[in-house]
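Example record

The entry below shows one chain as it appears in the dataset: sequence first, then structure tokens.
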Amino acid sequence: MNAKHVVVVDDATGKVLMARDPDAVVPIASLTKLMTAMVVLDAKLDPNEKLRITNDDVDTLKHSRSRVKVGTQMSRQSALEMALMESENRAAAALARTFPGGEAGFVKAMQTKIQALGLKRTAITDPTGLSPANTSTAKEMATITAAAARYAEIERITSTKKTRVPVDGRQREIHNTN
């Protein structure tokens, strides 16, 4: 195994089976989207509500590519599936932007979730994982992934190899990249 930072935990017992530098704080990139999904699902927002991708959802930090054009309309459910399966940054950004209270409300809810999970060394400033300020440790990522696995919807989405979601009124096939 080439990973610099890793922790392997037995789901049933919580026992650490293997660890390598598990407490080092490092950028977590797209794993951020697991926290984004939990925060969105905790808010119990209408999954069928239509979201429109705007210029505010475009990545101006790393200029990442996207298959979703500005102006695209999709349900919150489709955005959630695209964010989790294809790590679609614009979909994740739209989920935060349309959160009650907007991005500020989303950030507040994210901080509340971090505290609720007892994460002391995790910091998340954006919903996509593009910001290098989104950091955690391998040990706390194990806590995050275990928490995410307790959400039936996250478990279903992340376990699916491919699916079709309605985007702009047409079915689009998406594939799990994780």
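Notes for this example: The mean pLDDT is 94. DSSP finds six helices and eight strands in the chain.
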